[in-house]
Amino acid sequence: MMVISIVNYVILVVCVLVSVAFVTLLERKGLGYIQIRKGPNKVGYMGLLQPFTDALKLFTKEPTFSVVSNFLVYYMSPVFSLFISLLMWVVLPYKVGLLSFNLSMLFFLCCLSFGVYSIMVAGWSSNCKYSLLGGLRAVAQTISYEVSLALILLSFIILVGGLNFELFNKYQESVWFILISAPLAFIWFSSCLAETNRTPFDFSEGESELVSGFNTEYSSGGFALIFMAEYASILFMSSLFVVIFLGSNPNEMFFYMKCVFIAFMFIWVRGTLPRFRYDKLMYLAWKSYLPVAINYLMFFVSLKFFIFIIYS
């Protein structure tokens, strides 16, 4: 049984990595048309092979290492980042022998917190002031928005009465949760943008003042791994949004159509919105999103208590 689970997980990882390649192509095409220009269209039919040639170019380039960097930690942090991004996929409620377990929500929150360390260590180990500043900004931003994500998830834990993501499929057979908690869906989506360091919350990669942020010193394979980890996280957050709010079973084709739409919304936001100011970002997290998440949590607790009183 364990061997079957491992084989299934390896197949899942391969599918995720192929999906990451085509999401990068979707982003470049989408941004191209948003900016009234063509995206990649030369390599293969309509540019379909462009992501694979980019990956080949990145992984065959000669890596550069800073003399003053902490070599081992510097080298391992992109690997750890991609590992955490791929490990989170086991929590999705598949029914084909994957590692689905009862405490999947807690496992997701633990993996989400571990992602902070890879960014922090990547910025610190480079021994570059731009990388360190980008890493510090990313850590502060990620921790701030994790609070709202955890409170929203806690609200739904109370609502469905368990810590397994499979319960969302069961409880959304009749009505999607987005219809009863649209503000929470909006907060969850924008917090996912902040968690994955995407526009308009990409302060860890601010081009003007931080050169490229925490990954300034990375090139070739290290940069490619950080890039892949970011897009694997985007795909995972899109899938999780569908599981929590749009009520689809991952064994249905409709589930993947919704995932593509949510992933396209990540790209749409990048092509539309300018970058926030950093103080506005923190104000949004602590003064706007946190009170709404706490109020919804109190509402769900009261609702559950009221139902318990009625039926007891």
TrEMBL record:
<feature type="transmembrane region" description="Helical">
    <location>
        <begin position="253"/>
        <end position="269"/>
    </location>
</feature>
<keyword id="KW-0813">Transport</keyword>
<keyword id="KW-1133">Transmembrane helix</keyword>
<keyword id="KW-0496">Mitochondrion</keyword>
<comment type="similarity">
    <text>Belongs to the complex I subunit 1 family.</text>
</comment>
<feature type="transmembrane region" description="Helical">
    <location>
        <begin position="289"/>
        <end position="311"/>
    </location>
</feature>
<feature type="transmembrane region" description="Helical">
    <location>
        <begin position="143"/>
        <end position="163"/>
    </location>
</feature>
<keyword id="KW-0830">Ubiquinone</keyword>
<dbReference type="GO" id="GO:0005743">
    <property type="term" value="C:mitochondrial inner membrane"/>
</dbReference>
<feature type="transmembrane region" description="Helical">
    <location>
        <begin position="6"/>
        <end position="26"/>
    </location>
</feature>
<feature type="transmembrane region" description="Helical">
    <location>
        <begin position="98"/>
        <end position="122"/>
    </location>
</feature>
<dbReference type="InterPro" id="IPR001694">
    <property type="entry name" value="NADH_UbQ_OxRdtase_su1/FPO"/>
</dbReference>
<keyword id="KW-0520">NAD</keyword>
<keyword id="KW-0472">Membrane</keyword>
<dbReference type="GO" id="GO:0003954">
    <property type="term" value="F:NADH dehydrogenase activity"/>
</dbReference>
<comment type="function">
    <text>Core subunit of the mitochondrial membrane respiratory chain NADH dehydrogenase (Complex I) that is believed to belong to the minimal assembly required for catalysis. Complex I functions in the transfer of electrons from NADH to the respiratory chain. The immediate electron acceptor for the enzyme is believed to be ubiquinone.</text>
</comment>
<dbReference type="Pfam" id="PF00146">
    <property type="entry name" value="NADHdh"/>
</dbReference>
<dbReference type="InterPro" id="IPR018086">
    <property type="entry name" value="NADH_UbQ_OxRdtase_su1_CS"/>
</dbReference>
<dbReference type="GO" id="GO:0008137">
    <property type="term" value="F:NADH dehydrogenase (ubiquinone) activity"/>
</dbReference>
<feature type="transmembrane region" description="Helical">
    <location>
        <begin position="223"/>
        <end position="247"/>
    </location>
</feature>
<protein>
    <recommendedName>
        <fullName>NADH-ubiquinone oxidoreductase chain 1</fullName>
        <ecNumber>7.1.1.2</ecNumber>
    </recommendedName>
</protein>
<dbReference type="GO" id="GO:0009060">
    <property type="term" value="P:aerobic respiration"/>
</dbReference>
<feature type="transmembrane region" description="Helical">
    <location>
        <begin position="71"/>
        <end position="92"/>
    </location>
</feature>
<feature type="transmembrane region" description="Helical">
    <location>
        <begin position="175"/>
        <end position="194"/>
    </location>
</feature>
<keyword id="KW-0812">Transmembrane</keyword>
